[in-house]
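Duplicate of earlier report; DUF3077 domain-containing protein input re-posted below.
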Amino acid sequence: MFKATPNPPDNDPADSAALDKAAADRALDYYLKPKSSTPKTDPGQLFTLINGIATEALLANLSETLASANAMINDLAFDLDGSRRHVALGILQLVELSGLLANRALDNVDPR
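Output:
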């Protein structure tokens, strides 16, 4: 009895080895090198805030930062004389007003 034998495939074994290696590399990269979930940021930006921070937490940190700036400029203003002292006191007043605004906004978000 005669059995028909199909012709061998036309593709080169080196090509199939390269395809197998590429598929294996993709599979290993998928499982062993997961994509980073960090968002793309501007490389010129030094500080960033992550998304999803509550407004209350942002305002509380703003209030604390302004209180620190107030203490520093207050200490500096009383070490200066003349027009430099007036400039430092003007900055102190701006920081103090900003602190009052931040605290009022914090009270509006979370009334006590």
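The chain has a mean pLDDT of 82.

Merging into the original ticket.
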